[in-house]
Amino acid sequence: MCWQICTLVVRDNGTDTYEVRVGLTGESELTDLMHQGLPVRAWDSEPEETLVSPNCPNCSEMLVWQLSATQTLADERCHCGAALFDATGRPLPNVTLHD
Q: Are 50 and 73 contacting, i.e. CB atoms less than 8 angstroms apart?
């Protein structure tokens, strides 16, 4: 019997849906993989970008930001002017974040 070492991988297609695949890894790490022109990363790795979606406590508008790992939402405000995040990028107590 021959065994292959596999890893679950996620294909990042730029939307909020993620295709999960099985990748043959052998003895090496998964790095710089592509599938049909889109990046593939190990299931348990950190994504390069993340979506942050709060509801404004003032006007109830749902906002969405797509951030790289180096970006924060420090001092970000809603279109209505309500403060959403503090100077360090943490949501203010009255702001609800969606996962």
A: no
Q: pLDDT below 70 — which residues of the chain? A: 1-6, 8, 11-19, 21-48, 99
Distance CA 58, CA 81 (A): 9
How would you classify residue 26: left for phi > 0, otherwise alpha for psi between -120 and 50, otherwise beta? left
Tell me the whole-structure pTM to 2 decimals.
0.55
Tokens representing 23?
């990748």
- Predicted pLDDT at 63: 92
Closest Cα to residue 43, out of 27, 68, 65, 25? 25
Cβ contact 13:24 at 8 Å: no
Separation of alpha carbons 73 and 76, rounded Å:
5
Q: First and final CA of the chain: distance in angstroms?
A: 43
Average per-residue pLDDT for the chain: 76
d(CA 41, CA 48): 9
